[in-house]
Amino acid sequence: MMDIEEMKKNADFLIKTVKGIDIPGSVKVNIRYKTLVNFAKVYGITDPKYIRSEEDGVVACHAFANHFTIKAVYKLLIGFNVVQDGKTRGIMLDPGKLLHTGNIYNWDGCVDVRQGDKLQISGLCEDVWLNEKNMMLFYKFLVKVKNQNEEPVCDVVITAGVRKGGY
């Protein structure tokens, strides 16, 4: 178990190192008709725009952003490494201590997600801070989601917390 001083040292390092940098890599997500329709049905959506036949084409309901956002965040963050004291380490030492604490979605200037789209998801770590009361480290990520035509489909602000001992 890590002591408080080591956690504070790690938090200070991450705050100085990761804040304001691009998250390395990107994640691709292929959008399938069946996934879009099933997702809409789970939420009780009956608008034909979201559940009609595959031949007529469907678009994603806005709730679908949860599907690709969560998938991407975990893949991006688990591979996000930095060098501390000459050793490569992840921004999380224990991914099991990662908590998803919230998303803010912005569709301004964005196009609909459609069946057959191939989404590309990348991001930036905008901010990092430590809540010393509970020793939880928080990250604020700005995530851009574009389709295969480089058109924006959603911009997301994601906040994630890492419980003590996980950073």
Number of strands: 8
Briefly note the structural class of the backbone: alpha+beta
Number of helices: 4
Give the terminus-to-terminus CA distance: 12 Å
**Proportion of strand residues:** 35-45%
Query: What percent of residues adopt helix (DSSP H or I)?
Result: 25-40%
Main β-sheet description: 6 strands, antiparallel
- CATH structural fold name: Thiol Ester Dehydrase, Chain A
Note poorly predicted spans: none
Mean pLDDT: 94
- CATH class reads Alpha Beta
Provide the number of structural domains.
Answer: 1
Overall shape: elongated
Explained architecture:
The longest helix is centred in the first third of the chain and has 15 residues, at 4-18. The strands form two sheets. Strands 1, 2, 5, 6, 7 and 8 form a six-stranded antiparallel beta sheet that branches. A two-stranded antiparallel ribbon has the order 3-4. Strand 3 and strand 4 form a beta hairpin. With 167 residues, it is of the alpha+beta class. The chain has one domain: Hotdog Thioesterase (Thiol Ester Dehydrase, Chain A), CATH 3.10.129. It has helices at 4-18, 33-42, 48-51, 65-78; strands at residues 21-22, 27-30, 81-84, 87-90, 98-106, 118-131, 136-146, 152-162. The radius of gyration is 18 Å and the shape is elongated. It contains four helices and eight strands; from the N terminus they run H-E-E-H-H-H-E-E-E-E-E-E.
